[in-house]
């Protein structure tokens, strides 16, 4: 069984302009805004390893609500997340796929289907001015016990433009994802879910489980472990299965620190990591390590 790569992470934000400003101050190169045909838009951050961040904003509430009522799971889950947890956070892990239709059948058979698949397209413009209509097919997975987190596979039917290299170079020296950290009251309760989504076995680590892929690991840890690792009060870590942090792989942590300091971004050093607390446009705690 070959592990699925993390394709991207969905980070709900209240405002794309604020997200662009915040992510730029963290030293990331942010792509031009991209509009979806169902009332949401993004401003992505692409990495050398092929993964990316998708800060996601609702730009047309009426259109988004209408599509959610018609069964668009992507929008429905996003609006539900915002309704429960506010407009900022990390709501979904997305895995790469060569056959989303087959993934949907697999999720149904495994009892984790999050709803009907979705196919759509959106215009994507490269730094060189090339524009294509990228097309995607999504298959959704969800746990009944995890209202504030879901996953989906993403098949790129028509991929991004070829000349995207400039967007994958970041002043903060980040080359890709290292860890996506989720809090759970019972990490072992999510083993079957992540086994089926990531196609990777859960490995015991201190305080929980880790599921390794080529584009980063998903770590599902008890609340107490997350509080310990990131210097947070236990009561500050959400209950249930909730994404709490993203750790990035920096090629040079000294450069990362210099960029953060130059842009007046507050950070702390802890156990070989540089940590930046959540802020509007960022959503969750960000960490950087070599």
UniProtKB/TrEMBL annotation:
User: Where does the record locate the signal sequence feature?
Assistant: none
Q: Where is the Glyoxalase-like domain positioned along the sequence?
A: 6-194
Which superkingdom does the taxonomy of this entry point to?
Bacteria
Gene3D superfamilies recorded:
2,3-Dihydroxybiphenyl 1,2-Dioxygenase, domain 1 (3.10.180.10)
Q: A Pfam family for this UniProt protein?
A: Glyoxalase_3
Q: What InterPro entries does the record tag this protein with?
A: Glyas_Bleomycin-R_OHBP_Dase, Glyoxalase-like_dom
Protein name (Swiss-Prot/TrEMBL): Glyoxalase-like domain-containing protein
Give the source species: Rhizobium wenxiniae
């Amino acid at each position: 069984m070959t592990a699925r790569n993390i394709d991207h992470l969905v980070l709900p934000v209240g405002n794309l302009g604020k997200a662009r400003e915040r992510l730029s101050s963290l030293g990331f190169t942010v792509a031009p805004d991209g509009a979806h045909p169902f009332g949401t838009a993004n401003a992505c951050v692409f990495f050398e390893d092929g993964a990316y961040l998708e800060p996601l904003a609702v730009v047309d509430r009426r259109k988004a609500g209408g599509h959610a009522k018609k069964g668009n799971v992507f929008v429905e889950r996003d609006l539900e997340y915002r309704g429960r947890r506010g407009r900022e956070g990390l709501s979904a892990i997305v895995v790469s796929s060569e056959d989303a239709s087959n993934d949907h059948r697999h999720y149904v058979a495994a009892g984790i289907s999050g709803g009907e698949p979705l196919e759509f397209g959106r215009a994507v413009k490269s730094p060189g001015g090339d524009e294509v209509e990228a097309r995607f097919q999504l298959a959704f997975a969800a746990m009944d016990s995890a209202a504030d987190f879901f996953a989906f596979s993403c098949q790129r039917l028509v991929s991004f433009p070829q000349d995207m290299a400039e967007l994958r170079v970041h002043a903060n020296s980040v080359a890709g994802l290292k860890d996506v950290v989720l809090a759970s009251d019972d990490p072992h309760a999510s083993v079957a879910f992540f086994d089926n989504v990531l196609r990777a076995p859960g490995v015991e680590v201190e305080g929980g489980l880790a599921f390794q892929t080529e584009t980063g690991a998903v770590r599902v840890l008890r609340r107490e472990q997350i509080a310990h690792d990131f210097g947070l009060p236990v009561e500050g870590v959400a209950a249930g299965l909730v994404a709490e942090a993203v750790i990035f792989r920096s090629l040079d942590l000294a450069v990362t620190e210099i960029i953060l300091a130059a842009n007046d971004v507050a950070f702390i050093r802890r156990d070989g990591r540089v940590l930046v607390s959540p802020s509007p446009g960022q959503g969750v705690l960000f960490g950087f390590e070599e």
